[in-house]
Amino acid sequence: MTDTPSSDHLDRVGYLFGHPITHSMSPLLHQTVYDSLGLNWAQLPLDSTDMDHFLELIRNPKFYGRCPDNSVGASVTMPHKVAILKHLDSLTPEGRGVGACNTLFVRNDPITNRRLYMGTNTDVVGIRDAFYQNISDPDACFHDRPGLVIGGGGAARSAVYALKKWMRASKIYIVNRDRSEVDTVIGECTARGFGEGMLHVATVAEAEKMEGPGAVVACVPNFSPRTVAEKEARAVLECLLGKDHKGAILEMCYHPTPWTEIADISQKLGWNVILGTEAMIWQGLEQDRYWTGKDLHELPVKKVHQVIAAKLNESKI
Questions:
Q1: d(CA 233, CA 177)
Q2: How far apart are CA 136 and CA 293, in angstroms?
Q3: What's the average model confidence in pLDDT over 88-116?
Q4: CA atoms within 13 A on the CB side of 231
Q5: Any catalytic annotation for residue 81?
Q6: Which helix (H) or strand (E) holds 301?
Q7: Whose CA is closest to 221, among 23, 37, 88, 13?
Q8: Which of 30, 70, 117, 162 could crosslink 127 through cysteines, CB 3.0-4.6 Å?
């Protein structure tokens, strides 16, 4: 039986549903928002693989969404981002495009007044806004230039979506140690309508012939390459980063440290490095736009940045 955190003291309750979630800063981020807005709400961690239990919890009257003028909901993380889809009434274009849901929110059907469970994907917004909130001149930095995605998992799909749909990438390079993962990403993105111009850059010889990228999203854990395939992928990356144009790289990995080998290599080669906590913060604030009904300028953006920075510093001690 999954342990459910107590919510007796709260007016409204939401959940972070996933496994494992021990190191997630999502509850801290959202608590900062709710406290700043004077709301007696909380996002409670639900470290679980029990989908039925989660579905039961979100039908509780206390679950975010009973307020008449706004609705809130749950963060859904691995391994549930795809599994949750069949339990939802509808998806936003972002959720459909990526084929994964990280955010559940509630709306009432205007005709039947039935409660509708909706899904979206704010990871793509987090990636987009991490660039636009940190780069003063996107035209000079990454607009109308190739984008580069490092990795072949779910985050890579979100990165491709953001680069293609919103960041004016002329094409997308994929660098990854596993060709089959790249083929899967390209196939899925193409099937969903945003895979045109995606290229697997598999060798240094190929990389040497290509135009340098402008926006780079690194979607892999922090590790030193050991296998032949890993070393080749790292060499390809260094070749692309070593070209004359220097843009911005978003390093999505921030645990256990936001400063990774790829971040260090990028900085030494002259790139603007954006830490992964930026994407985490902006996707979380987008979630709170859905859940509180507030616009971004009404949310405590500066305070959230301060709290997350303090938490990172605390973990270094």
A1: 5
A2: 28
A3: 92
A4: 3
A5: yes
A6: helix 301-316
A7: 23
A8: 162
First to last CA, the chain: 35
Residues 286-300 have pLDDT tens digits of: 999 999 999 999 999
Read off the pLDDT of residues 221-245 as tens digits, 9 standing for 90 and up: 999 999 999 999 999 999 999 999 9
Q: Which helix (H) or strand (E) holds 98?
A: helix 93-98
Q: Which helix (H) or strand (E) holds 165?
A: helix 154-165
Beta strands in the chain (DSSP E): 12-18, 41-47, 73-76, 90-91, 103-108, 115-120, 147-150, 172-175, 198-200, 215-218, 248-251, 272-275
Strand order in the sheet with 73-76: 41-47, 12-18, 73-76, 103-108, 115-120, 90-91
Rg (CA), the chain: 20
**Region of residue 193 (phi > 0: left; psi between -120 and 50: alpha; otherwise: beta):** left
Q: Please, what are the domains in the chain?
A: 12-121 (3.40.50.10860), 125-276 (3.40.50.720)
Single-letter amino acid, residue 155: A
The structure's pTM equals: 0.93
Q: Could you tell me which of 263, 219, 306, 281 has the C-alpha nearest to residue 24?
A: 281
Of residues 81, 171, 302, 311, which has the active-site annotation? 81
Q: Token pair for residue 67?
A: 């307020």
Residue in 155, 154, 147 with CA at minimum distance from that of residue 174 = 147
Edge-to-edge order in the sheet of strand 215-218: 198-200, 172-175, 147-150, 215-218, 248-251, 272-275
Six-digit token string for 92: 């936003």
Q: What confidence tens digit (pLDDT) does each residue in 135-188 have?
A: 999 999 999 999 999 999 989 999 999 999 999 999 999 999 999 999 999 999
Give 271's DSSP letter.
P
Which two structure tokens, joined as six digits, stand for 42? 């909380």
The span from the CA of 36 to the CA of 247, in Å, is: 35
